[in-house]
Amino acid sequence: VAEGSATGQGTAYTKRGAAEGQKSLSSGGRSWTKNWIVFDNSYFTDMGKNDPEVIYFPTDTVLQTDAGFKVHCERFAKDQAAFFASYAAAHKKLSELGC
Predict the structure, then answer these.
(1) How many Å apart are CA 27 and CA 80, to the nearest integer?
(2) Domain total for the chain?
(3) What is the pTM of this model?
(4) DSSP readout, the chain?
(5) Which of 39, 40, 42, 52 fits a 20 to 30 Å CA distance from 76?
């Protein structure tokens, strides 16, 4: 779940960045979170707001609807330190696997 929050660091927000044919400050799309340059838990705090300007991918939706994932999303929204700890552990494991 922690690594799944990469959407917040990636591009998918319709009001920031660029959609096809639009100018952008950065190439490749739009950020899901408003302050995309800051690493924090805003992906999780923003997730439940159902902002109509946000593009929700199936991977985002399942994090909110699947009982096994939802508990982590709710915890990460309330506790940024828990998100940081989980993200660091997941990132370390993926790095050790060469991912």
Answers:
(1) 29
(2) 1
(3) 0.70
(4) -TGGGHHHHSS-BTTSS--TTS--SSTT---SSTTTTS-SSHHHHHHTT--TTB---HHHHHHHHSHHHHHHHHHHHH-HHHHHHHHHHHHHHHHHTT-
(5) 52
Residue 94 structure tokens: 């993926």
Residue 44 pairs with which residues in a beta bridge? none
Give the residue carrying structure tokens 């399942």: 62
Domain extent, residue 54, equals 3-96
Q: Name the one residue in this structure whose structure tokens are 């593009």.
A: 55
Contact between 14 and 32 (Cβ < 8 Å): no
The CATH number of whichever domain residue 36 belongs to comes to 1.10.420.10
